[in-house]
Amino acid sequence: MCGYSTGILNHLDDIRVTELRSDPHSRRIDWLRVLTRADPASLERLSTPLLEGHCFEVLRAPEIGLVMVRARIGNSGDRFNVGEATVTRCAVRHRAADGSLTAGIGYLLGRDEDRADRIARLDALLQRTDLRDRLLHDVVEPLRAQRVEHDRAQRARTEATRVRFFTLQPEAAT
């Protein structure tokens, strides 16, 4: 996919992220997903030393609001409104020593202003090519590995309690 038309931008939820992995925008989506799903304590522990010494300008202070959650039946039917969800968002700007500016955003489900601010700051720094590799190695990848392990353990717990129902087939009349 080379570019996006206006119609496609309205349907980004229909595009699988794996199809866009090589795109710089997709890489940003990926690290934002990892940061948003990370355990709050681990996120704070791993990112605090790397955020020290960087100054940020707050573009949008952390704020809590509601969004409408939409779904589809069978992941292919018409969309419908499921209900509302609480979200926290934040936006910051970082000015590098060379004067270049990067803006970072933090959106997450729930009410956690500190975590939204931390995610926005990390997003701004991750967009800088001179810091990206270190932040990916020291923060994003450990958080990704932790989440993969958490998800694996959750699937194992779920699988252990799964009940399988088999439908009896009626005997064929002979």
In short:
The chain is of the alpha+beta class and 174 residues long. The protein contains 5 helices and 3 strands. The chain has one domain.
Characterization of the model:
The chain is built from five helices and three strands, in the order H-H-H-E-E-E-H-H. With 174 residues, the chain is α+β, with helices and mostly antiparallel strands. It has one domain. A hairpin with a 6-residue loop joins strand 1 and strand 2. Helix 3 crosses helix 4. The N terminus is likely disordered.
Core attributes:
single chain; 174 residues; alpha+beta; 3-stranded antiparallel sheet; 25% strand; disordered N terminus
- What percentage of the residues does DSSP assign to strands (E)? 15-25%
Mean pLDDT: 85
Low-pLDDT runs: 1-20
How many domains? Answer: 1
- How far is the first residue's CA from the last residue's CA? 57 Å
Tell me the number of helical segments per DSSP (H or I, 4 or more residues long).
5
Strand order of the largest sheet: 1-2-3
Largest sheet: 3 strands, antiparallel
Give, in order, the helices and strands: HHHEEEHH
Radius of gyration: 21 Å
Q: Count every beta strand, where a strand is a DSSP E run of 2 or more residues.
A: 3
Helix/strand/pairing category: alpha+beta
